[in-house]
Input
Amino acid sequence: MSQAKSYAAKSATTPLVPFSFERRALRENDVNIDILYCGVCHSDIHVAESDWGPSEYPVVPGHEIIGRVTEIGNKVSKYKVGDLVGVGCMVDSCQTCSSCKQDLEQYCDNGMLGTYGARDVIDGSLNYGGYSDHIVVREEFVLSIPEALDASKAAPLLCAGITTYSPLRHYGVKAGDKVGVLGMGGLGHMGVKFAKALGAEVTIFTRSESKISEAKKQGADHVIVSTDDAQMQAAAMNFDFLLDTIPVQHDLNPYLNCLKVDGMHILVGLIEPMEPAVHAANLVLKRRILTGSLIGGIAETQEVLDFCAEHNIECDAEMINIQDINQAYQRMKKGDVKYRFIIDMKSLKE
Ligand code: NDP
Ligand code: ZN
Output
């Protein structure tokens, strides 16, 4: 066992505070990682604040983790001490079901284990995420960070990156397709970069007029201000794909109306319940498809890291100290982040 420092939410309504706990002793296939950086995902806020039903507290969020290997179990073969590695949204799955065998651990038939707020299958303990100084993870769920990536900006690829890359690849977005990205936050800004890299013509749907010039700098070809009905109506029947990253309840109908025949609305934003209702006519009359997508498998997460290294794709991030995490949450709730906060974990050690 090793003593860990962290920041935790102790309830849904109180700010994150310093919290110490024990990490498990290394199992034979475990890697111990000294955490350098951790991205701040909107899912962290959802879990800290029990948006998805009651969370088990304390919650130590954080699933965009970059760090160095400091110790390995005696059966670890993929990593050695000193390697630069990453951990994303999952830390375990059964490895034997049909989903796991197809490298789709995120859809494990027996349930994958999230990086925090879940109970370890072997010892039943509540697990804690990356807003901490170190983490112990079985090697199958550890990623290798390519040399060509800037380690201080790579953390968001482990969730925001893979979550947007995976559906664009899976559903076959290709050169010339018209792709709309809904919400210009952590996931949205990566969605724009990947859709552009795949050759699509990309439009950002944002509530924030102030993000228009930024959006163009990100590579977006067009921007639609989603609160402007005239702009939304002018976009009717225009898109092949919409990638929806909005983290709160919203009316899908005006967006569905923007899709061509056979167009696809892909939900990645996780909101419950889904209200207001989708009008059947918005799907039926144009054979449109409404679907969703959860992160990506481990092999595909390695693929996105390598893809970004090869195509010089970087996240746009604002570095913060852990002591500023509560303020960062407030800013994210207002959509005031360009476009991901990354915690410099040195600040936890000071
Ligand atoms: P961010 O907060 O970084 O970005 C969300 C963006 O959505 C904002 O920047 C804003 O863009 C827009 N938005 C925010 N509030 C509203 C609102 N009230 N109405 C309309 N638009 C709004 O969040 P993330 O990108 O980190 O996460 C987005 C969602 O994706 C979350 O629900 C998260 O839990 C989920 N998620 C899902 C995963 C999966 O596997 N499917 C994995 C990771 C996250 P703008 O200002 O441009 O309008
Ligand atoms: Zn996330």
